[in-house]
Specification:
With 297 residues, the chain is an alpha+beta fold. It is built from 11 helices and 6 strands. Helix 8 (182-203) runs parallel beside helix 10.
Length: 297
């Protein structure tokens, strides 16, 4: 039996699933997060969401962000230019420093070649890891990049996560210009979906396997499991996160083969369209995990 083919025209159906507030606020019956289901949300996005929530409980925050990882460590929190391995501190120390007073946060999901408000090794590491966290307190502006090392076998594995921290100049203006507001990101996400759908339909590359729809649903539903994101998460933030996750899941599926592209020009056109789709999704997800920078901290 031939594989099921799902047209690109149906992609918007997979992105339009309504978000139910009860699923996040806890009005529904509580759900235990299975330890074998890692979050599709980047660690920087998760940490930013929790740090930006009202009065988060540190133990709950750490449990949500670290998940099944080994306990996260932090290098460079004391401001050393080249911290020694023995300089490692637990993630709880960084969390405590940020939560000690007024603060603002931003998540970045950069791709190679995109500018970031940091230089040197950390900028390259952020591009390699595909994420970074920006923090601002009354006394410091910081950039933190999680370096993730996988260990173990394919069947049984874990992750060592080290957050590399450096002091940076005030990053708020750069983030406002690069990421924009949540409203801008949501609008760009809708426009990007329309443009990408048209481009990918012309190239006829939406050849999905039978498990495609299930994988997209898993990405959306898994992102907002109770206990993973803060209770009472703003409805617009939740909506943008779920749409961006689905869109990125579609991009991953569409790049698993060359679809019906028959020459290099078509492959290049498809790649360009998918890069724009992914860029819109990354910016939207970052905006959903960023403080309102128009108000003073």
């Amino acid at each position: 039996m031939s594989p099921t083919l799902v047209g690109v025209g149906r992609w918007s159906e997979h992105l339009s699933g309504a978000w139910t507030p009860g699923a996040v606020t806890g009005r529904a019956a509580p759900t235990v997060v299975p330890v074998h289901e890692p979050s599709p949300l980047p660690r920087s996005v998760l940490l930013a969401l929790w740090l930006d929530s009202p009065a988060p409980e540190p133990a709950v925050l750490l449990r949500a962000v670290q998940g099944d990882d080994e306990p996260h460590t932090v290098h460079g929190l004391d401001g050393a230019d080249d911290p020694a391995p023995s300089d490692a501190a637990p993630l709880a120390r960084l969390v405590a420093e940020v939560l000690a007073g007024p603060h603002q946060v931003a998540a970045l999901l950069p791709a190679p070649g995109e500018p970031a408000p940091m230089t040197g090794r950390l900028a390259g590491l952020a591009a390699d890891q595909g994420e970074a966290l920006l923090l601002r307190t009354p006394t410091r502006a910081l950039a933190a990049v999680p370096e993730v090392v996988r260990f173990g076998s394919e069947r049984e594995h874990g992750h060592l996560v080290t957050w590399h921290v450096v002091d940076v100049p005030d990053w708020r203006t750069a983030v406002l210009g690069g990421v924009g507001s949540l409203q801008d990101a949501e609008r760009a996400l809708r426009e990007g979906l329309v443009e990408a759908t048209e481009a990918l339909t012309r190239l006829d590359v939406a050849r999905w396997r039978p498990d495609a729809a299930g994988r997209i649903e898993a990405a959306r539903d898994g992102a907002l499991r109770p206990g993973l994101v803060p209770d009472g998460l703003d409805a617009r933030r939740a909506r943008v996160l779920t749409s961006a996750l689905r869109l990125r899941a579609i991009v991953r599926l569409a790049t698993e083969d060359d679809g019906a592209a028959v020459n290099l020009w078509q492959v290049d056109q498809r790649s360009t369209a998918l890069r724009e789709v992914d860029r819109s999704a990354r910016r939207a997800m970052a905006a959903a995990a960023t403080s309102d920078l128009r108000t003073p901290s």
